[in-house]
Amino acid sequence: MMKNRITTLFQIEYPIIQAGMIWASGWRLAAAVSNAGGLGLIGAGSMYPSVLREHIQKCKAATSKPFGVNLPLLYPDIDQHIAVILEEKVPIVFTSAGNPKTWTKTLKDAGITVVHVVSSSKFALKCEDAGVDAVVAEGFEAGGHNGREETTTLCLIPEVRKAISIPLIAAGGIASGRAMMAAMVLGAEGVQIGSRFVCSPEASSHLAFKEAIVKAGEGDTQLVLKALTPVRLLKNEFYQQVKLAEDAGADKERLELILGRARAKRGMFEGDMQEGELEIGQVSAQIESLKPAGDIVAEIWQDFKEACKMPFKI
Q1: What structural domains and CATH numbers belong to the chain?
Q2: Could you read off the pLDDT of 95-138 as tens digits, one per residue?
């Protein structure tokens, strides 16, 4: 157990947060991580409001520990998601992909702890000004949608730490206790981990996607679709289509046509490994097996403690 500003803020044992990933982070994963002493998040990005309500209620039944919801702010029916969160009295909300000023006051007035995800120190400062309780600084290595700055976690964390006074959580390229220690040495007070938790039985992602992550090696992911919203993908036939189009100078409209609709669901949830969108981080190359989420939390924490004891010689 560790006591710092992050564990105190969320009332958790370990400063380990499971990212709220689309098509992966349902109530089963969130409850399992929370029960293991971390903070589980339900990923609302792939859920209709009624589905989100169902997941929140099931998570409440599955854990007595704190949990939260990750809420991308770019969706047109965001007010309906907010209404569900308020009605269900969700204690913690991580917002992303939008202006934190829009909903932070509404959430905080309801007694909700609010955290916002950023990719630069400039936006971290805007979050602090908006009144959020903590910031997640996510580096270029992360899976899924990324910031346009392409700043790596190793460079991003010190800059954000220097810019803000509120608690800081590091994300992007973290799947082990040693990586967690490195992030905390640089100024983070906790870590948010996504890709590693996808490879657990509790994650709602398709088994074929999980197995593809385990098989992935160094260089098997790439950041593409920068003309739309930058996203890191596992390389497959869909990725090749996008890459060829981008190399040929495709405009935004052409890329939108290639992307189509429900491409992420098709890949990560339905298991189409060739034509689906497979969002995952660079750290997938380090993931070698599927493990229960609780075991992953325990393994990371043990690895962190051992890393803290390592002697360093110059």
Answers
A1: 5-204+287-308 (3.20.20.70), 207-283 (no CATH)
A2: 998 899 999 999 999 999 999 999 999 999 999 999 999 999 99
Q: Of 74, 81, 126, whose CA–CA distance to 106 is shortest?
A: 81
C-alpha 245/C-alpha 227 separation (Å) is 12
* Three-state DSSP class for residue 237: helix
In angstroms, the CA 173 to CA 152 distance is 9
Provide the pLDDT confidence category of residue 313 given band limits of 50, 70 and 90. low
Please give the radius of gyration of the chain, using alpha carbons only, rounded to the nearest integer: 18
H or E segment to which residue 232 belongs: strand 231-234
Q: How many CA atoms lie within 13 A of 49 on its CB side?
A: 14
Q: How confident is the model at residue 75 (pLDDT cuts 50, 70, 90)?
A: confident
In this structure, what token pair is assigned to residue 99?
Answer: 């202006």
User: Which of 40, 44, 64, 65 lies closest to 55 in space, CA to CA?
Assistant: 44
Structural contact between residues 175 and 286, judged by C-beta atoms closer than 8 angstroms: yes
Cβ atoms of residues 289 and 196 within 8 Å: no
β pairing state of 190-193 and 221-224: unpaired
pLDDT for position 314: 46
| Angle value at C-alpha 93, between 88 and 97, nearest 5 degrees | 125
Two tokens, residue 131: 């009144």
pTM assigned to the model = 0.94
Amino acid at 222: Q
Q: Does residue 234 carry a pLDDT above 70?
A: yes
Strand extents, DSSP E, the chain: 16-18, 40-43, 67-72, 92-96, 113-118, 134-138, 144-145, 168-171, 190-193, 221-224, 231-234
Quote the pLDDT of residue 144: 84
pLDDT of the residue at 312: 63
